[in-house]
Amino acid sequence: MKRKVNKVGNNTLTVSLPSKWAQKHQINAGDELEVIEQRKSLEIQLKTSLKRERKIAHLPIDKPLKHLVNRSLSTLYVLGFEEIEISFKEKKLYDQQEDKYINIDEYLKSVMNKFLGMEVISQSPQKFTLHIFVKDFEEKELSIAQHRIYYLTKEFLETFIAKMKQDFSSFHEQHYFFHDNIAKFNFYFQRILYFSELSEQKKAKMFALYTLIDKIMDTIRHLSNRVNEMKKPSLKVQQVLERIFSWFLAMHATYLENPPDYQVYEPLIKERYTILKYVNKTSFTVSEQKAVSEAIWILDIINEFVETTLFLQEEKFY
Known about the structure:
Strand content: 15-25%
Oligomer: single chain
Largest sheet: 4 strands, mixed
Shape: flat
Order of helices and strands: EEHEEEHEEEHEEHHHHHHHH
Structural class: alpha+beta
Low-confidence stretches: none
Strand order of the largest sheet: 5-6-10-9
Helix content: 40-55%
CATH class of the largest domain: Mainly Alpha
Number of strands: 10
Number of domains: 3
Number of helices: 11
Mean pLDDT: 88
CATH architecture of the largest domain: Up-down Bundle
Radius of gyration: 24 Å
């Protein structure tokens, strides 16, 4: 689409907005828009505080599988839907992990704890309506949410390490609480990131990073099962997991500092290879190997941390 540049006064250049786009988004004279510079292009966005279209999602549950409903709800939440209407024919969901059916009413009420601001606002025999009371936010909340995720993760991993040396079963009984609390803030961060005024390229990179962090929290949850099966994890397993967890927390903390020089990651890159070499040359029993194999892939997130740092600092390379 081509637009003509007009001169107003002595120094001001203007370009008109496409009328269909302006009408669609209810843009009126006097409204403020965000103009973002990206190399040789300009990106025009609605300000977050301007009228945002009310997004209502319709989610029919034709296949009553708990896993699919979980993924659907988390996706619609992140995509910024304000209301989610869930319709269903059967009053039960199949939990494939536990190989049993669960009551859909109880499931939907319990799932509210996994999403900040989500509440049931209406209910009928074959329909639930969920409303998300998270709308406008300030850009600084992106940083606040990321730091909250880090500190919750730090508490989770440090408690995991400490309890391996004591009574791990007591930790294992509540590990879901740690996991779900982190996931709640991760989904919230991704939701406000979706509405943020960052460029689409930066958003995409941050989405990818925090999706991986969510997968790592799933891995820690699975690791809790492996360690609990061992009753008393060996010193070798304790040392390997502690080194991996400490490395991950150091990577995460470094990323949040927004280092001006990406070479600050060099010691952590070196430590990653040191851990890998130690694991490769160490003999483990079958149960030890299960736990170590579950955890070792966490070291692969190094590229995402470094690349996201570079994406967020794109402007300094020009």
